[in-house]
């Protein structure tokens, strides 16, 4: 069984908020691999980065994505950097993957100063800009659809995605 839809995008694109709204609209469960990683590690992502480093976090993330794709039946949101792993990009082939696109001003407004986001701890705006530029081609590579989220209500975005899924 495969997820109904997999959401990818930069921090602040709305993966969790839109994913929850979409799952509620479709009457399915919502799953976030960042939460799965925290459950697997027994601690928050920030602590994984501090205690064990990004390499360990990415290994846990790959395992969480693999498990979620295999078990999935609802809406699945991946962490913003999950698509960095070639293994994850390959695993997404054949799935309905929606890239939630966001531009820097909206992303910065949504994530604030990066509290709880280890990669945004120093100079959040510049770091987020760099991450978005680095990852945008990878989101496009895995996406079967792209939805712009800037200045939009999560319910409207969820409605648009639900409409696309019906086609």
Question: What would CATH call the architecture?
Answer: 3-Layer(aba) Sandwich
Low-confidence stretches: none
* The CATH C-level class name: Alpha Beta
Instruction: Look up the CATH topology.
Output: Rossmann fold
- Radius of gyration from the CA trace? 15 Å
What percentage of residues falls in helices of 4 or more residues? Answer: 55-70%
Which strand order do you get reading across the main beta sheet? 2-3-1-4-5
Q: What is the assigned CATH homologous superfamily?
A: P-loop containing nucleotide triphosphate hydrolases
The domain tally reads 1
Question: How would you sum up the global shape?
Answer: globular
Task: Summarize the structure in short.
This protein is α/β, with parallel strands linked by helices.
Provide an overview of this structure.
Helix 2 packs across helix 4. Helix content is 56%, strand content 11%. It has 8 helices and 5 strands, in the order E-H-E-H-H-H-E-H-E-H-H-E-H. It is α/β, with parallel strands linked by helices. It has one domain (5-161): 3-Layer(aba) Sandwich (Rossmann fold).
Defining traits:
11% strand; 56% helix; 167 residues; alpha/beta; Rossmann fold
Please specify the SSE layout and strand pairing.
Blueprint (H helix, E strand, L loop, with lengths): L4 E4 L6 H12 L3 E3 H9 L3 H8 L1 H18 L3 E3 L8 H6 L5 E5 L2 H8 L12 H19 L2 E4 L5 H13 L1
Parallel strand pairs: 1-3, 1-4, 2-3, 4-5
Helix pairs in contact: 1-8, 2-4, 3-4
């Amino acid at each position: 069984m495969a997820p109904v839809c997999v959401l990818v995008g930069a921090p602040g694109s709305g993966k969790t908020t839109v994913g929850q709204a979409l799952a509620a609209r479709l009457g399915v469960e919502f799953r976030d691999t960042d939460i799965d990683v925290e459950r697997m590690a027994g601690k928050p992502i920030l602590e994984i980065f501090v205690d064990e480093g990004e390499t360990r976090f990415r290994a846990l993330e790959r395992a969480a994505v693999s498990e979620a794709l295999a078990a999935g039946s609802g809406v699945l949101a991946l962490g913003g950097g999950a698509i960095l792993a070639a293994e994850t990009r390959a695993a997404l082939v054949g799935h309905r993957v929606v890239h939630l696109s966001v531009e820097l001003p909206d992303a910065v407004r949504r994530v604030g100063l990066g509290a709880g986001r280890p990669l945004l701890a120093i100079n959040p705006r510049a770091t987020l800009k760099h991450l978005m530029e680095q990852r945008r081609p990878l989101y496009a590579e895995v996406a079967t659809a792209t939805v712009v989220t800037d200045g939009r209500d999560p319910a409207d975005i969820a409605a648009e995605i639900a409409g696309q899924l019906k086609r």
